[in-house]
Amino acid sequence: MGDRDTRSTDLPGRYETNLVQLSKVLRKDGNEPNAKFVCASPGQTKKDGTVAGGETLDAMQAVDGKSRKHAEFKGNVSSIYTHLLSKAGSSVGHCSGNSETYMNGCKAIDKVMVDL
């Protein structure tokens, strides 16, 4: 999630609002008002990277329940910065087919979901 947004100057500004809305709609449509979500950053996106990439990462952190910005997400929404887990490639190459990158990301998401 967020890959296209990290390469655009127009999209990151709406990313936080869109994540909040997505969570609310999925909870409503799925009849699961307390559903838990984990938002993982695109692995190739660095915190000190492009402006658009940084804004997208900031938006993901803002919806994390620990940020206290969105009180309704406390204890049920978390975000993960996955760049440190990435072993190769970019979004275009889908991590260059590096299975370790996929496994690292999945393990991190699993751990956070269990913690929620």
Task: Report what the structure shows.
With 116 residues, this protein is mostly helical. The protein has one domain (5-115). 41% of the residues lie in helices and 7% in strands. The protein has three helices and two strands, in the order αβαβα. The chain has helices at 12-29, 51-63, 99-115, and strands at 37-40, 77-80. The chain has a two-stranded parallel ribbon with strand order 1-2. Strand 1 (37-40), helix 2 (51-63) and strand 2 (77-80) form a beta-alpha-beta unit. The longest helix has 18 residues, at 12-29. 26% of the residues are buried. The mean pLDDT is 78.
Helix content: 40-55%
| Average pLDDT, all residues | 78
Count of distinct structural domains: 1
The assigned structural class equals mainly alpha
Query: In angstroms, what separates the terminal alpha carbons?
Result: 20 Å
Low-confidence segments, given as residue ranges, are none
Radius of gyration computed on alpha carbons:
14 Å
Sequence of strands across the biggest β-sheet: 1-2
The proportion of strand residues reads 5-15%
